[in-house]
Amino acid sequence: MTHSHNPANPLAGQVAIITGASQGIGDAIAHQLAQLGLHLVLSARNTQKLNQLAEQLHQKAPGIKTLIVPCDVRDAAQVQHVVDETLKTFGKIDILINNAGVAPHVGLLQETSIEEIDRTIDTNLKGSIYFMRAVIPVMVQQHGGTILNVNSVAGKTAYPYWATYDASKFGLHAVTEAVAEEQRTNNIKVIGIYPGPVDTPIWEGLHLDHEPKRKDMLTAEQVAESVAFILSQPPQVFIKGLDISPLQPTV
User: Fold this and answer.
1) Domains of the chain, with CATH numbers?
2) Taking the alpha carbons of 108, 172, 129, 30 in that order, is the dihedral positive or negative?
3) By CB count within 10 A, which of 59, 61, 134, 219 is most buried?
């Protein structure tokens, strides 16, 4: 794995792909990593928002390079295209942050539409699997890399009325742990981060019975700081997973 020669900041010059970068946690992670000097591949469905984000990052951290590759993670061919374009531009992939995710409407399983089930499983679980499958051969060849899967407390505790979302996140938890063991000998770290409620646009349009207390939730920036903390560990340190939650109950 290529490290820069800046011992104070070993992340400078590394290349990270961020999915779901156009808003919320993905946007906050992009800002955090740009300040640490990483070159970023920004991916999401909303090209306009990605362009705005890239502009903000260049003002904040003029030394970094950004590449915008729009992608719907539900399409394995689009996922492969992001990886191919990254290699064409940077020649390496040090970090993958699987952050793209959707939350379905809250309700009983039998009232959940087939479209909603497909959208949730295909985005949250299969999209992450597609990306891992596409970057791992590159990282194996480099003999190193980090994959960070942005999960949720719903990846460890099943919440009623969120059954499909729970399933997508429990599945991601299982994949993360299995692949972490598969890839240890290749110096590839596969890590899950499990935030509690985060104040992001995902809460809008969920039609909850009562409004959650968004002021007590984690901020996207706090989650991004946890991501930076994990990535800043020395090569031999493996943080297998990180649970992060607000101090006060919010829902």
Assistant:
1) 15-244 (3.40.50.720)
2) positive
3) 134
